[in-house]
Here is the input.
Amino acid sequence: MEIAVCRAADVALLDQYIGSPGTVSTHARRFARQEAGGGACLVAWLDGRAVGHAEVIWDGCAAPEVRAALPGCPELNGLAVWPPQLRSRGIGGALIRRAEGLAREHGRRVLGLGVAADNPRAADLYARLGYRPLTDYVDRWSYEDRDGVTRECADPCTFLTKELASGPLDVKQP
Here is the structure.
């Protein structure tokens, strides 16, 4: 398995192998943010096929509760392994470790991520990797479905953080 930063040519392969909800490619939006310097998209490859992805968003989670609790904390977002039968084989953990490495390379000393209240399997993985609860929040997002209708989603979540290096946390103060 290889974990690599997403390239332009990878976006179509991600759409083919992993897909996006609705009509607009989530992978294209994430890649555009990467190209603008706002994040880094990671892709897990196994035997030439995209089997997982994650994004580090440098300016962090959009939820006001998270921004108030730890301003400037970069967020690991959109972690997914596909197809489901490949889960619990180390792919998600490898994506997280690579994201932590990128955060360190960018001078960050903490990384955060959200976990949905109804996803105990992911919560267990994050706890094993050293992530600890910071604050509860509601993750709000939307997408346009195949009929062109915008769907609003709201998931109760907990934002977890992990200190990546010794010393004070490298975050912006309000």
Notes: The chain is about 30% helix and 35% strand. Strands lie at 2-5, 39-46, 49-57, 75-81, 110-116, 132-144, 150-163. The longest helix spans residues 91-105.
